[in-house]
Amino acid sequence: MLIIHFKRITSEWILLLFIQAVLSAEIPSSVKSQSMVSPYNYENVSAWGNLFPTCMGQQQSPIALNKDTIFYTERTPLRWIGYDNQPTEMTLGNNGHTVKLIGKWKNGNVPYISGGPLLDDYVFGQIHFHWGPNDTYGAEHTMHGFTFPLEMHMVHYKRPYGSIGNALKHVDGLAVVGILFTITNQTVVTTLDPVTDYLTYVSKPHTVSNIAPFRLSILGGIYSPMAFMSYSGSLTTPPCNEVVIWIVPIYAWPATSKQLSQLRSLQLQTHTRYNNRPLQPLNGRHVYFYKT
Ligand SMILES: *[C@@H]1O[C@H](CO)[C@@H](O)[C@H](O)[C@H]1NC(C)=O
Ligand SMILES: *[C@@H]1O[C@H](CO)[C@@H](O)[C@H](O)[C@H]1NC(C)=O
Ligand SMILES: *[C@@H]1O[C@H](CO)[C@@H](O)[C@H](O)[C@H]1NC(C)=O
């Protein structure tokens, strides 16, 4: 519908070059040549720990969520507040690893979640997606042994920390809702259209485009019957900070094969057509099941 601008995200390039400058001093040359292309890629996820040691930590994500190994719990319901508020601006960006959606709201109107496993308000920061090479595989978490083609991560930061960047320094910094999607035979499923309609504008790495602002509640998953799994884990991308309270609803949302192929047609930095991290060990962590 509209495309306001289309430019390189220069600040990300600068950050990337800075990271490479720091790393090139201390990493083996085989890894270094790889990091000249990208600080990480999905072709060799086992090497992430060489550059980002936390990726070898004991509380990593994603994990297999399984009904046989969960603890039932009763707490206050998870609440979604402000997800119907109209943003004033929205931006879609391809950062070379995923497509990321951010928004701006008038003062006090930024959506947030609270309740459930959360001991404070967690303010909406961004949404991004993980997908795979085909329509059966690509979500990061699995549920009862099932795989899904797409997972949407709604990233929220604990309100007192003020930003995602600052929240990354605290073990309770982020709450990420991971919405699983499954392919439906219906030809028209509009849930993801406000994002997928604009993917052609950000098909190249390090591009960004303003898009028509829309209420986040359109995207699905929100207000869904609140049965979800929750556990303590990490970012699923380097630097893999172990700062995430994960919330994964047990119901998958519909997407079409066309929407998946639109995501797959994005050019990522390392030319893979997928960006999902493999399952990580549970290492004795508890997974809690919330049903309200
Ligand atoms: C992946 O990374 C590991 C650890 O650095 C290395 O041993 C291995 O050779 C790499 N494999 C490929 C295919 O690059
Ligand atoms: C989908 O991709 C996964 C990962 O490469 C692979 O294991 C699986 O066999 C593929 N499924 C189909 C139906 O092609
Ligand atoms: C969807 O369509 C495919 C191909 O026509 C068919 O094999 C499959 O059974 C259908 N699934 C459902 C749930 O209708």
UniProtKB/TrEMBL annotation:
Residues 1-24 form the signal peptide. Its EC number is 4.2.1.1. CDD domains: alpha_CA (cd00326). It catalyses: hydrogencarbonate + H(+) = CO2 + H2O. It is an enzyme of class 4 (lyase). GO terms for molecular function: carbonate dehydratase activity; zinc ion binding. InterPro entries: CA_dom, CA_dom_sf, Carbonic_anhydrase_a-class. It comes from the Eukaryota. Keywords: Lyase, Metal-binding, Signal, Zinc. Residues 38-291 form the Alpha-carbonic anhydrase domain. PANTHER family: CARBONIC ANHYDRASE (PTHR18952). Belongs to the alpha-carbonic anhydrase family. This is carbonic anhydrase.
